[in-house]
Amino acid sequence: MPTLLLLNGIRFFFYSNENDEPIHVHVTKGNANGKIWLEPSIEVEYLYDFSNSEQKDILEIVQANSENFKKKWNEYFGK
């Protein structure tokens, strides 16, 4: 599971067997976890056990890094 970014204790990554799904990232910090779609648009699937401020930070980080995350996904899966 390639790590895309580790920032403020929050890890952004994807699983290596998910190339049959639209581009997305998973996020984790301690016991908190989430999944955010990057395509067709940025949309939260779930964010469990993150505080409201962490959720806001996560969305800002995803928005700022979405193109880089997509690039890394496509490079990894050879698309």
Automatic annotation (TrEMBL):
Domain of life of the native organism: Bacteria
InterPro entries: DUF4160
Protein name, entry field: DUF4160 domain-containing protein
Originating organism: Niastella yeongjuensis
